[in-house]
Amino acid sequence: MKKDIGARLLAFRHSTGMTQAKFAASLDVSAATISTVEKGAAAVSRKLIERLAERYSISADWLLHGTGDMFQATPEEQAVVVEALEQTRKVNHDLQDASRYTRLLFLEQDLTGESAAPPDRSFASYEVAFRLDWLRTLTPNPSHLKLTYMRDSGLTPEIFEGDLVMVDTSRTEIERLPSSSPSRAYRSVLFAVKQFDEVFIRDIEPTEDGGAKVFGGRRHHPRPEELTQDELQDLLVVGKVVWWSHAVRS
């Protein structure tokens, strides 16, 4: 039973796109508490059940027994849902206005944290529209943006299998952004890179000698690949990852 409860809590947290630490902070509990419950190693406390209900309207019956709806909605919350549905209908109508929205194309390959067999997915059949004003907050020229799907949870907990990922193909230079951590000079940045005829997602941290540490596929390769300056220049960068969504599933 504890494992079933943990699995339901994990599924909900994944739907929010939050790490265990952020999720725990939102509930004013420790990350260790969330971790042990999700693993089925500990029973869920009354305090956690109450805070899930208060913060996220999670139904206790659904969490404990898997019965009923995930959310327990008050009349006020139901009114919010109705309003959200109305806004969705308005957005669908506005999609006809090409000056406000644009449809992004998909890369020919999806992102992967580790090498795996290509998925059975036809990219030509997918179209996703975005508001241009929002896209311009990510990049000055949205025409360089491409979409793809994540295959394998190679960068857990950041990006999970099935997540929709947006890549700016105009930003192929490895950025050297100062780090606030005293243990490293530069921050790591997510990039899509092409290796062995596949596109991979990699967390790249520049080093002071001009090279970089490349993280990826952490389940089997927890240590980074260290590249020299010359090796880094030979790395084929497809673009910078500027956004991803945990909510979109194929």
Descriptive notes:
There is one protein chain. By secondary structure, the protein is of the alpha+beta class. The protein folds into 2 domains: 2-65, Orthogonal Bundle (434 Repressor (Amino-terminal Domain)), CATH 1.10.260; 105-245, Umud Fragment, subunit A (Ribbon). The protein is 31% helix and 22% strand. The protein contains 8 helices and 10 strands. It has helices at residues 2-16, 20-27, 31-38, 46-56, 60-65, 75-94, 132-135, 229-234; strands at residues 101-104, 111-112, 128-131, 145-151, 164-168, 189-195, 198-206, 212-215, 225-227, 236-245. The chain has an 8-stranded mixed β-sheet with strand order 2-4-5-10-6-7-8-9. A hairpin with a 5-residue loop joins strand 7 and strand 8. Helix 2 (20-27) crosses helix 3 (31-38). The longest helix has 20 residues, at 75-94. The model is unreliable at 113-125 (pLDDT under 50).
The strand order across the widest sheet is 2-4-5-10-6-7-8-9
Q: C-alpha Rg, in Å?
A: 21 Å
The CATH H-level homologous superfamily of the largest domain: Umud Fragment, subunit A
Largest sheet: 8 strands, mixed
- Structural class comes to alpha+beta
Subunit arrangement of the protein: single chain
> In percent, how much strand structure appears in the residues?
15-25%
Q: What is the CATH class designation of the largest domain? A: Mainly Beta
What ranges have pLDDT less than 50 throughout 5 or more consecutive residues?
113-125
CATH-assigned fold name of the largest domain: Umud Fragment, subunit A
What's this, in brief?
The protein is α+β, with helices and mostly antiparallel strands. The chain is built from eight helices and ten strands. Helix content is 31%, strand content 22%.
